[in-house]
Amino acid sequence: MRTAMANRLTPYMFMAPAIVIMALALMYPLGYMIWGSFRDWNPSQTIGEAEFVGLKNYITLWGDPNFHESLGVTLRFAFFVVSIEMVLGVGLALLLDRDIRGISVLRTMFILPMMIAPVVVGLMWRYMYHPTVGTFNRFLDGIGLPTVDWLGQHALMSIIIADIWQWTPFIFILSLAALQSLPRSALEAARIDGATAWQQVIHIKLPLMMPVLIVTGLLRLIDAFKVLEVILVMTEGGPGLSTEILALRISRTATEFRELGVAAAMSNYLLILLLLLTVAMFAFNRWQETRAARVQALVEEDD
Amino acid sequence: MASPNTKANPAFYAVIALLVFMSVGPVILMFMNSFKLDVDIISGSSGLIFLPTIQNYEKALCDVLWYEPDHVDFCSLKFGGAFINSLIIALISTVLTLVIGCMAAYALVRFRFMGRDTVSLSTLMVRMVPPAVLLVPVFGLWNNEFCLDRDGLIGGAIRDTFGGRGDVCLAGTHSGIILIYVAMNLPFVIWILQSFIVQVPRSLEEAARVDGAGPFQVFFKVVLPLIKPGLAAAAIFTFRIAWNEYLLASALSDRDTRTMPILIVNNMSEFNVEWGVIMATGMLLAIPPIIFTLFASRQIITGMTAGAVKG
User: Fold this and answer.
1) DSSP for residue A182
2) Is A28 in the B-facing interface, judged by CB distances under 8 Å?
3) A18 to B297: CB separation less than 8 angstroms, yes or no
């Protein structure tokens, strides 16, 4: 009787620490943030002392040109980063999907940029982009071309390039894994039928990889909204607001402008955006599973 | 049409060499610059010929060196202390996350109980929350709510021992930063470990149970050894985030608990950047991830594919 009881309680005991910590340090803060977003709140007050202002923070932000600018920068950054990385990463995976020696060494080299701290990535690129001592301008100068004002006029492009450097390997590695787990029989059949390499890529490899590619792309998209440190170190959001992505603006509103309520409302907008993306991803996964199950059932019927 | 799987011509290897150069080049550049004097970096006698010096590292770590380097008149950086803080925070939060996450993942996979789907779903949802979103509430809570009253029993005892005036709060302590890191990493760790635990054959566990092992024994003696690769991957990812994170640490730490990324960012925003020292500090921060990459790339790739594809 005692053991039966203990057995029934086991799963809860195993779950308890995780649930307590996540409730205390994730769920409660998120609720607290939603609560705080309805208040005129500055860092020296506790939330109870802050005045309740209803939807004012949200409405202010809705009409705030700086917020629009920042949202625009975020969306542009996310769009360019994800689409360029997808093309490059998948392209490289298709190119390098062969039995060559040393592919594991290659992959090791490729994951290095992802593992290094964003802060360090930022400082490396800030050095390389430096107008006078930086690597790029020195190189351009060396071969007699005019130098480029990387972190000034072209700041957004420069942070996009840095992000592409850091995260293309992620997509490369995932799509390489997907490529190598494709059914050999389909490729074999296509080759026997005389399909060219291009035809194989377009009609067989890409469609078969599509499910993995879409999930990868969505994951990368969600991560693109989280980027903060690299940009903070490279440009601090400037010049002007040209590279001030939402995450950065939230942290500046909270620490520099000392408007916690507005920052919380902005966090909520970002969260809603991400929630939509996550739901899209989850729905896609479900749809994928049911479709796979249906195909499986059909195959079994044929047998 | 020759099979593309066997042919490998020189142009192909040239492409690979170029890619490797592009991904590793900046790191090597930083490595070399960290051994140069500022004069050499700025004058741009670019190239491989220079006299390596460890002055930058001496300057960065001046607070933990046992001797006083001649060129350092005033030790302003205190990077050594930050290094130790980072190490404490990253290691403790990694261990805690793994233990707690492992237990939760096991329960999610092996026991059917109410709310399993909900937990799974919320795990996925929470994974999407950016640290910036947590900044405001965590700052408020850790400073105002997660406190022990100074007149209370425990709070009073802590206050008496360590001194200070107000209530005892989580903000500014190592445990405050560790708590948020554990919470942030748990969803991802549970997610990865789940995909490994699913592969452990049930029959093995049942055999152990027939032999009279309790649920805890089954977990520690049968399941844990079998999911070691998953644990390694999860450990690396957790450590990486805890080690590299800047934003939340900067909001929660005080003078004594600052981690390395905070010091680097503070130094970068100064008007006159000392490139040599900055590169040295960056290198110090990059060393553990580089070591992981070189020695455990297989686990990292496993973790990455398990986390994304099976997610």
Assistant:
1) S
2) yes
3) no
Q: Which CATH number fits domain B81-309: 3.30.70.2570, 3.30.420.40, 1.10.3720.10, 3.40.30.10?
A: 1.10.3720.10
So where are chain B's domains? 81-309
Nearest to A235 by CA among A123, A110, A78: A123
Q: A152: Cβ–Cβ under 8 A, 6 or more apart, which residues?
A: A131, A239
Question: Per the CB < 8 Å rule, is A233 touching B265?
Answer: yes
Position B28, amino acid: I
C-beta atoms of A270 and B244 within 8 A: no
* Rounded CA separation B120/B194 (Å): 10
Interface test with A, best of B133, B245, B297, B304 (most A CBs within 10 A): B133
Total CB pairs under 8 A between chain A and B = 278
Residue appearing with tokens 């049911």 = A290
CA gap B180, B251 in Å, rounded: 12
- CA nearest B182: which of A222, A226, A25? A25
Residues A233-238: contacts with CB under 8 Å, at least 24 apart: A233/A118, A233/A119, A233/A122, A233/A123, A233/A126, A233/B264, A233/B265, A233/B268, A234/A122, A234/A125, A234/A126, A234/A129, A234/A151, A234/A158, A234/A159, A234/A162, A235/A151, A235/A155, A235/A158, A235/A159, A236/B269, A238/A155
- Mind listing the pLDDT tens digit for each residue in B110-157? 776 555 566 666 666 777 788 888 888 888 888 777 776 666 666 666
Calpha distance B286→B264 (Å, rounded): 12
Nearest to A278 among B103, B125, B251 (CB): B125
| Residue pLDDT, tens place only, A225-262 | 888 888 888 888 778 788 888 888 888 888 888 888 88
- Block mean pLDDT (10 aa), chain A, length 303: 64 83 85 85 75 82 86 90 91 80 78 87 87 79 78 84 89 85 80 81 81 82 86 82 85 83 88 85 79 79 67
- Give the ipTM: 0.82
- Is residue B98 a contact partner of residue B238, using CB atoms and an 8 Å limit? yes
Contacts of A127 in chain B (CB under 8 A): 29-30, 33, 275, 279
The phi and psi torsions of A255 (rounded to 5 degrees) equal -95, -35
Q: In chain A, which residue's Cα lies nearest the Cα of B31?
A: A124
pLDDT in tens, B238-258: 898 888 888 888 888 888 888
Helix (H, G, I), strand (E, B) or coil at A52: strand
Which chain A residue has the Cα nearest residue B18?
Answer: A106
Chain A residue with CA closest to B4: the answer is: A98
> What gap in Å lies between CA B255 and CA B273, rounded to an integer?
22
DSSP reduced 3-state for B64 = coil
In chain B the beta strands, taken as DSSP E runs, fall at: 147-148, 168-169
Residues of A with Cβ-Cβ distance to B179 under 8 angstroms: 21, 24-25
Chain position carrying tokens 């592969």: B199
SS3 letters across A211-280: HHHHHHHHHHHHHHCCCCHHHHHHCCCCCCCCCCCHHHHHHHHHHCCCCHHHHHHHHHHHHHHHHHHHHH
| CATH fold group of domain A26-39+49-302 | MetI-like fold (1.10.3720)
